[in-house]
Structures are given as structure tokens and as C-alpha cells.
Amino acid sequence: DFKKRTKNTSNGRQAGLTYVVVTPRHWEQKASWVDDKSKGSAWKDIRAYDVDDLIGWLQSEPGISAWFTRILGKPSSGVRDVEGYWENATRELAGSLKPSVLLGGRESVVVGLTGPGTQGDLNKHIAICCRSPAEVVPFAVASILASEDQSLIGRALVLTSREIWERIIVEESGMILIVDHSVQPSIEELQQAASSLHQVIYCGNSSTDNLNRLDTFEAEKCLTDSGVDEARAAQIARRCGGDGRILLDQLIELTESVGTPMSKLPDRIKSACLLVGGWDGRQEADRQVIEYLS
């Protein structure tokens, strides 16, 4: 292949290109092969990577590793890349539903999440306080995906396991860690994350919300732009009560096929679930009601 590529590519083009060989096998002679092919070559550079390089790369880049294991159909437990999280959260609509559907009216918080210069400073960890702790992760994921900044997307991980959280803040560095509310990071752990140059986005426990309710008009517009029927989009945007997590849950119900457990729920339970937009996750009574409904 090297001979064929070299023969079919002019010297002028080669001067601006790097020839790369990647193999999923162990290749002991890769360094000598590169040296041999580089002699008298017009290519800008020649590189060779084998399975050892690939393993080292995946170990040094947890975000890429989470993406790769998902592509292989073997996602890691307790950790997801942001694209995989969004795909799972939106099911059949993953390819068309815009992440901005969860961002309407929340621009100031979005800027705080995706703005420059936020790594390695404990004060730059972002505590999102809102009525529904379950909304923090999907909102943060949507914010990062909507930025279309690959440097953010590639470094961002969603953590739902304390074990994974405790390991990553010590063993890795420079990541954007979106932490599920069930993990509950301590001050000491946040300090450790800061020393490892991580930025942590987590559910705060302040009595003052800093995440506004979702703008109904913006959510409806984004839903229709994503291909949802206008009447259904208006209904979902209105009934979610400004809660992005409930909006996504309603979309999943919309795409569930007839006969699934979701479609068999009694109407009274479905109706009650649509009222969850008014609940406050910090109140014990509200949590008891949700536990009963689930």
C-alpha cells in the first residue's frame, strides 16, 4: 500500500501530507520500518502505530476510551462520553434532536459551562442548583454538545459511579467531569479534582436556584425544528414544567413502540408524572411522592 500511495501521489502533495499506518496487531519493527521508508521520501512525515500505541492512547484519554468502548458495543459501567449519554437519553431522536432543546432561557449558565479558562481552579468547578437534581447532567451534556467544540466534547465524561469518580480524580487529569447527583462529591474530593486540573460540574445544594426553568417557547421551537409534530411539541414543552429531564422522558415515551411497559402505564400515573415539573428535589415530602410513583 505504501508503494501504491507513494506512486499515485505527486511529490508536491506528499510534501504537505503525513503518511500514517495503523494496525490492531503488535508490530515490533514499526520504528525500523518508519526509518527505512523515510529515507529519500517526499512525504512530510511517516508514522506507524500498533496495538500498544492504541492502548496507551485510550488509557491516557478516558473520554476517547468511553467513546470507543461504546462504538464496540461494550460501554463501561458508571461512565459515558457525552455523545453516548445524549444518544441514550434521546433514543430514536438522537440523530435529529438538537441539544439546544434544553438550553432556552439559560444562556448565562451555558456560558459558564463552556467558557474559556475554567480548568484547575476550585472556584471554577460549577455547582448547578435547581429544583430537580436529575436535570443537571442532561443540561450540562446539552451545553457541551451545543458548543460544537471538539476540545470540550472529547474531554467530557458523565460519571454515575462513586468508584469511577474516586479513581478518575486521582488517576486522570484535565477532564470535564459531569457528575450525577447520586455521586455527591465532597469538598475534599473537589479539591483533589482541582489539583488534577479537572473541571467538575455537579449538583449543588444551595437553597437558591441558578438554573432557570426551561423557556417553553424556545423548547417548542427546537422540538419542531427537530421534526416533532407541532401539536405534540407544544404539548411536551408546556407539560414538562420547565424541566429538561421531564421533557426528554416525554420524548422517550413518544418514541416507545406500542406494547412496551412504558405504553402500558395507567393514565393516572402518566398524568401524575407530567406534574413532576413542580417538584423540588430538596424537599423530603416531594422525594417520597416521586418514590411512590416510581
Strand order of the largest sheet: 3-5-6-7-4
User: How far is the N terminus from the C terminus?
Assistant: 59 Å
Computed CA radius of gyration, to the nearest angstrom: 23 Å
Helix content range of the residues, please? 40-55%
Kindly state the number of beta strands: 7
Secondary-structure content class: alpha/beta
Order of helices and strands, N to C? HHEHEHHEHHEHHEHEHEHHHHH
Give the CA-based shape. Answer: globular
Mean pLDDT: 80
Number of contiguous helices: 16
Strand content: 5-15%
Show unreliable segments. 118-122, 257-265
| Main beta sheet strand tally, sense and closure | 5 strands, mixed
Describe this structure in a few short sentences:
This protein is 48% helix and 10% strand.
What does this entry look like structurally?
With 294 residues, the protein is of the alpha/beta class. Helix content is 48%, strand content 10%. The strands form two sheets. The protein has a five-stranded mixed sheet, with helices on both faces. The longest helix is centred in the middle third of the chain and has 12 residues, at 136-147. It is globular. The model is unreliable at 118-122 and 257-265 (pLDDT under 50).
Write the layout of secondary structure elements.
Elements: H1 2-7, H2 11-14, E1 18-22, H3 30-38, E2 45-49, H4 51-60, H5 62-71, E3 79-81, H6 82-90, H7 107-114, E4 126-128, H8 136-147, H9 150-153, E5 156-159, H10 162-171, E6 176-179, H11 187-195, E7 199-203, H12 216-225, H13 230-239, H14 244-255, H15 267-273, H16 284-293
Helix pairs in contact: 4-5, 6-8, 12-13
